[in-house]
Amino acid sequence: MTTTERRYRPAPGAAPVWRMLVAQTAFETRLLLRHGEQLLLTAVIPVTLLALLAFVPVIDTGAYSRLDFLVPGILALAVMSTSFTSLAIATGYERRYGVLKRLATTPLPRSALLIAKALTVLVVEALQVTLVGGLGAALGWRPTGSVLAVLALIVVGTLAFAGLGFLMAGTLRAEATLAAANLVYLLLLVLGGIIIPLDEFPDGVQPVLMATPAGALADGLRSVLADGSGLPWSGVAILAGWAVAGFAAAARWFRWE
Amino acid sequence: MSTSAAVEIESLVKCYGRVPAVDGLSLTIPSGTITSVLGPNGAGKTTTIECCEGYRRPDSGTVRVLGLDPQRDARRLRPRVGVMLQEGAGFYPGARGVELLSHLARLHATPLDVATLVEQLELGDTARTPMRRLSGGQRQRVALAAALVGRPELVFLDEPTAGLDPRMRRSVWDTLSELRAAGVTVVLCTHLIEEAERLADHVVIIHDGQQVAQGSPAELTEDDESTVRFNGRPRLDLASLRDALPEDASVQEVSPGTYVVATTVDPGVLATITSWCAAHDVMPEGLQVGRTSLEDVFIKLTGAEPGTGS
Ligand SMILES: Nc1ncnc2c1ncn2[C@@H]1O[C@H](COP(=O)(O)OP(=O)(O)OP(=O)(O)O)[C@@H](O)[C@H]1O
Ligand SMILES: [Mg+2]
């Protein structure tokens, strides 16, 4: 009985916050990379689209060469798929299964949970950028522009999408989030300047499409990677605006249960 | 083991919308005990312990857990408290059982050894299966392990044995006894009176959002009241029997065909019962006069039968 008594002897204490952050990020990344449907969204669709559209001339890429147009667009798609669609769906189901409620009783602070989710998104995006960029390079894509500007755009773009993802996950039912997040993904894929140049659309709607997070991110990435411009401030401003609005709304309306 | 209170609740009120789920409840849970929280469905047990876990903010009243305020001192309190939600809820659907325990262990400074815990709670079969595909009982046992892995000094377990097979239920009972032996305070919501009778040092009965009894099982069952138990046809109309008995008597069909009369039993009462049986053509098989059991107290206080009130 002595050994068994010793087994449950209390020894409470939280791990250091950095260790919780690393553990939570590693755990969530592992779950995400194991999830078939999520991988379809974040890896298979972008890579397939890039490969297909690079070979089959179904779209007129206007002033840009095919790859100069496509690769930045697909990078924007990759960012959107992870930081919006996948984040919203995963968070929606975590909320529905009571994961968020259960986690709230562990030593992991809520802020650390949010940071871990952000880090998870960034880790997956790094893998996506490597995959998409690598495929592009293999097909002959030669980007220009500043790496820092690209990173900045991806980070602001991620924040813009993540705010909206959290808003959706925290207010809708999980099934509704699943449907809506996929719908928005599809709409922005077609209308967000990702695979179809925005100047193919009527003049009246172009500014509207340009002001979507996808439009701003795709266009911004293109102007850096294809045109070699510096950081496109108007795009950054649009994305930052979405980020602020999205997180403010999520903070206001997100329900944990 | 200190003798202070692990949980102290004073006039707790918690409403969902306008409807109070907990309505002026006060209770004390002594440190180092197994305390059973009993009450009918919807009585407010889960709501009460969720206020203790810091998950719900009380509308009014005070809640002190290990001397701390679960809302204000959440950061300090959470590492010290283990939680198992009702039905073992709250897990990443895609995570495997053991993987989840290993992860939760990493959030704590000196967690239990996961391999040992897995062996002790027989969780080996959850190593390869995602949580969403585990059986209800398997999921619940992972949830119990998850409540323990951080080596808490206080655990809140919401119906940990509901839906477990008899062998697993026993194994969980053994674990709970071990926890107490190690000095952990266990708060155990349950519907199984047998579980409370076996394990609990302290019992709290909740009804309609209020505490209607608390004390050791011996304290709750010791009064000069006793019971008469008998079997007959199921669903007898008990109204006329109630009318014939003294005012303070309670009559319940505790399970189909089993009737319990709780009152101060004297020969007169016994005669009333048997003549009522005769008048209703009931052969009162297994008629037995006995000391009040915890179940009798529970039924008396919570009026589990419709029409008897509380
Ligand atoms: N999230 C909620 N929203 C609205 N009402 C709720 C919610 N949770 C519980 N209630 C209501 O509050 C009351 C108390 O519920 P609670 O879950 O605390 O009961 P309980 O004693 O745990 O019951 P059980 O034995 O069935 O688990 C019930 O009437 C229930 O319908
Ligand atoms: Mg309950």
TrEMBL record, chain A:
<keyword id="KW-0046">Antibiotic resistance</keyword>
<feature type="transmembrane region" description="Helical">
    <location>
        <begin position="147"/>
        <end position="169"/>
    </location>
</feature>
<comment type="similarity">
    <text>Belongs to the ABC-2 integral membrane protein family.</text>
</comment>
<feature type="transmembrane region" description="Helical">
    <location>
        <begin position="71"/>
        <end position="93"/>
    </location>
</feature>
<keyword id="KW-0812">Transmembrane</keyword>
<dbReference type="InterPro" id="IPR000412">
    <property type="entry name" value="ABC_2_transport"/>
</dbReference>
<feature type="transmembrane region" description="Helical">
    <location>
        <begin position="114"/>
        <end position="141"/>
    </location>
</feature>
<protein>
    <recommendedName>
        <fullName>Transport permease protein</fullName>
    </recommendedName>
</protein>
<dbReference type="InterPro" id="IPR047817">
    <property type="entry name" value="ABC2_TM_bact-type"/>
</dbReference>
<dbReference type="Pfam" id="PF01061">
    <property type="entry name" value="ABC2_membrane"/>
</dbReference>
<dbReference type="InterPro" id="IPR013525">
    <property type="entry name" value="ABC2_TM"/>
</dbReference>
<feature type="transmembrane region" description="Helical">
    <location>
        <begin position="231"/>
        <end position="254"/>
    </location>
</feature>
<keyword id="KW-0813">Transport</keyword>
<feature type="transmembrane region" description="Helical">
    <location>
        <begin position="39"/>
        <end position="59"/>
    </location>
</feature>
<keyword id="KW-1133">Transmembrane helix</keyword>
<dbReference type="InterPro" id="IPR051784">
    <property type="entry name" value="Nod_factor_ABC_transporter"/>
</dbReference>
<dbReference type="GO" id="GO:0043190">
    <property type="term" value="C:ATP-binding cassette (ABC) transporter complex"/>
</dbReference>
<dbReference type="GO" id="GO:0140359">
    <property type="term" value="F:ABC-type transporter activity"/>
</dbReference>
<keyword id="KW-1003">Cell membrane</keyword>
<feature type="domain" description="ABC transmembrane type-2">
    <location>
        <begin position="37"/>
        <end position="257"/>
    </location>
</feature>
<dbReference type="GO" id="GO:0046677">
    <property type="term" value="P:response to antibiotic"/>
</dbReference>
<feature type="transmembrane region" description="Helical">
    <location>
        <begin position="176"/>
        <end position="198"/>
    </location>
</feature>
UniProtKB/TrEMBL annotation, chain B:
<dbReference type="GO" id="GO:0046677">
    <property type="term" value="P:response to antibiotic"/>
</dbReference>
<dbReference type="InterPro" id="IPR003439">
    <property type="entry name" value="ABC_transporter-like_ATP-bd"/>
</dbReference>
<dbReference type="GO" id="GO:0005886">
    <property type="term" value="C:plasma membrane"/>
</dbReference>
<keyword id="KW-0547">Nucleotide-binding</keyword>
<dbReference type="GO" id="GO:0005524">
    <property type="term" value="F:ATP binding"/>
</dbReference>
<dbReference type="InterPro" id="IPR017871">
    <property type="entry name" value="ABC_transporter-like_CS"/>
</dbReference>
<keyword id="KW-0813">Transport</keyword>
<dbReference type="InterPro" id="IPR003593">
    <property type="entry name" value="AAA+_ATPase"/>
</dbReference>
<dbReference type="GO" id="GO:0016887">
    <property type="term" value="F:ATP hydrolysis activity"/>
</dbReference>
<protein>
    <submittedName>
        <fullName>ABC transporter ATP-binding protein</fullName>
    </submittedName>
</protein>
<feature type="domain" description="ABC transporter">
    <location>
        <begin position="7"/>
        <end position="233"/>
    </location>
</feature>
<keyword id="KW-1003">Cell membrane</keyword>
<keyword id="KW-0472">Membrane</keyword>
<keyword id="KW-0046">Antibiotic resistance</keyword>
<dbReference type="InterPro" id="IPR027417">
    <property type="entry name" value="P-loop_NTPase"/>
</dbReference>
<dbReference type="InterPro" id="IPR050763">
    <property type="entry name" value="ABC_transporter_ATP-binding"/>
</dbReference>
<keyword id="KW-0067">ATP-binding</keyword>
<dbReference type="Pfam" id="PF00005">
    <property type="entry name" value="ABC_tran"/>
</dbReference>
<keyword id="KW-1278">Translocase</keyword>
